[in-house]
Specification:
Elements lengths: L3 H9 L3 H15 L4 E7 L11 E6 L4 E4 L2 E5 L19 E2 L4 E10 L4 E5 L4 E4 L3 E11 L2 E10 L3 E2 L4 H15 L2 E6 L1
Antiparallel strand pairs: 1-2, 3-4, 4-12, 5-11, 6-10, 7-12, 8-9, 9-10
């Protein structure tokens, strides 16, 4: 990640206890009810490179089993409806400094199961932002889902807000898809 969030992470991680709590909040917000197992991050001092974090979490609460199918909920989306709560705006929407967020999630497929369906790929962009999600079967035991959000502008004008809102709603709708596994 780059931008203000990257700066916040670097500052917060200077204190180990606070860093541990921050990663638990991240695990819980991306994977509702997820419990942090472990985390790693790139060098907090090197501000010339993107800041990278990785963690593993117990997310069994996102899995439901019915009959011979296992349904896995996807991580929470990077962009949510809170940014577009107003239907119309009288003033521009300030979006903060340009930023890049990338989330890579790897699912290990349990023995005896195979992929029936995966979330569809997403590719939506305009002059201000782009959102891309790809789903890939790595091998018979692993699926990878990659989500990238890049924001290039600092504000959305009143005139461009309706189109921006429409695109964000489209992204939110497409994020409500599942990974479905079936017994072999």
């Amino acid at each position: 990640m780059r931008g203000g969030t990257s700066s916040y992470f670097r500052q917060t991680l200077r204190t180990k206890d606070v860093g541990q709590k921050m990663f638990q909040r991240i695990a819980n917000s991306l994977f509702k009810g997820g419990v942090l197992d472990k985390y790693e991050h790139s060098d907090i001092e090197d501000i010339t490179a993107p800041f990278n974090i990785s963690f593993s979490a117990d997310v069994t609460n996102l899995v439901s089993v019915s009959g011979g199918k296992m349904t896995v909920s996807m991580p929470e989306q990077i962009v949510n409806a809170s940014i577009i709560t107003l239907e119309k705006r009288k003033l521009p929407l300030w979006t903060g400094i340009p930023s890049l967020y990338e989330i890579n999630v790897k699912f290990e497929i349990p023995e005896g199961f195979a992929v029936e369906s995966m979330p569809n790929d997403i590719s939506i962009s305009n002059d201000c932002f782009s959102i891309i999600r790809t789903s890939t079967i790595i091998d018979e035991n692993n699926v990878a889902i990659k989500s990238v959000f890049m924001k290039n502008c600092t504000e959305i004008s009143v005139e461009n807000y309706p189109q921006f809102r429409k695109l964000i709603l489209e992204v939110i709708k497409k994020h409500n898809e599942y990974l479905v596994l079936v017994k072999k």
